[in-house]
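Appendix B. Chain record.
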Amino acid sequence: MAKTPLLLRAGISPALLDSELARVSQHQYATLIRVIRRAMRDEMWGLMSRPVAPGSFGQCLQHAVRCSTLGEALRSAFAFYHLLIADFTPRLSARDEMARIRFITHRPMDPRLIFGIKAFMLFTFASASWLVARRIPILGIDYPDAKLAETSRVYQAPIRQAQPFMGMSFEAHWLDLPVVQTPVSLREFLRGAPANLIVKYRDNSSMSDRIRRLFRRRLGEELPSLDAVCEALAVTPQTLRRRLREEGRGFQDIKDELRRDIAIELLLQTHLPLLAIANHLGFSEASTFHRAFKGWTGVAPGEYRQAHAEATPA
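Structure tokens predicted for this chain:
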């Protein structure tokens, strides 16, 4: 299937694929998922050895909302998908007060399978949090590869790389939480998918998100140093570093990612000149912003804006 028409329908320039660092907005990504799912008639977007029929996710959750506890709902969902997906099997276990979800693969790992399991794991996490109306705190993520930057931000948990399997772990007592959603709330949830699966259950209490909010309030001026952030949040540098390490984050990474995300937002949603965007992000010169943005995304800001303009339907 030709990829260019699908990308253009999601407002994404195919030229951005030339850079491994290029990023798209959450809206573009959610739109692309819907476009691919509709075009391929496959809820796993052609990543598995056989398609997953449209409507499968909704049907799975129809069973899950009738379960009593999160543990029962997860086991029901995994049994449901075991009938649909031949490439991997999600398994839930609980032992020594620790719950683990592991994905047992049935064919050799390749980029398509890895990405498919990553997507399934993210949707599992978001759906589980929605079912109990609480973000499930993840204790650790297991990955076979080292592409971790965005993953650590999503789960706010340490990443164990180069593992022989993929999975996640959390405290077992979360499995006993009651399912609070209903078939009525499910209809509203499905209307917002997949966008709400991507962003709804962020951890706003995490140290990295607190720092991110502090940086956002200071945009347009020099962003505070680590010592200044510690003073503002009333923590010691040692505590801040430890908390960020537990969340799998880095202080400079948070600063760079916020600037990158705000820059993309302003480039795509406004007509502000590059110098105005640079100043808003705390850069004194457009050339400095230009170098930083290209380092973050692999694409110059002017090229990024132009590519998006050409990709967006009139």
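Further analysis of this model is presented in Appendix C.
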